[in-house]
Prior knowledge:
This protein has 320 residues and is α+β, with helices and mostly antiparallel strands.
Amino acid sequence: xxxxxxxxxxxxxxxxxxxxxxxxxxxxxxxxxxxxxxxxxxxxxxxxxxxxxxxxxxxxxxxxxxxxxxxxxxxxxxxxxxxxxxxxxxxxxxxxxxxxxxxxxxxxxxxxxxxxxxxxxxxxxxxxxxxxxxxxxxxxxxxxxxxxxxxxxxxxxxxxxxxxxxxxxxxxxxxxxxxxxxxxxxxxxxxxxxxxxxxxxxxxxxxxxxxxxxxxxxxxxxxxxxxxxxxxxxxxxxxxxxxxxxxxxxxxxxxxxxxxxxxxxxxxxxxxxxxxxxxxxxxxxxxxxxxxxxxxxxxxxxxxxxxxxxxxxxxxxxxx
Length: 320
């Protein structure tokens, strides 16, 4: 019995050590990751792959319903402000001429703010109900299955009536809340994750230590002569090169276009590593996350160049 206990005491540390190596890595670089927003808000799209929108137009002509023209202008103005605050969807000031970008259509069913007095208290109530749709080149792409209803109610003692939000403020809050609920499915959710590193070879091990120490660009310079070789089959070094460049995108790039170029290069390294090692979950996850980012938000920079050229052509004087 003592012999078995002695043997178990010798083996257990080895078993525990092996299990420990199987756990998630605690070394790597912190990077920002954009993932699809799981909240869909009953917005149904008929176009496959509709996961990101670079430009969108909303104006008085895209707002309809039994409301005054002035109210249409106000609703369009509030909606346009919401598009701008996303930093993903660029609001356009002119309607699309040839379907270069989609329109946000808002059909208003209810839109009013009422104030009433009861005893020594004032109550201000607002209701905004509307159906939303996204159309491009005249074709319906997405729409709400049911109208979105926003209700607001504020109450104050009569002697504090100045504390009540103004009717225009209530209108703004209702419209913008409804628009945020509609478009948030097209705005990815950002989170920060630890992109682990790999040390399967001497080269990748040295780079991993540098990345873990925060020297991402130094690690990439170390790896670059090897990973830029088309014949490179060192999956760990290719993956670590992707981590280094992705890290630099969020810590060294000064503007979004530079971030896009860095992330595009990181995606290329992840793609090569994924082909060499299709069963590695960390490599496949990194590739999938980069593919999504480049396909949605960051791909907007490529579409923006084309759209801006079209807008410039429309503004340019025409000769006869």
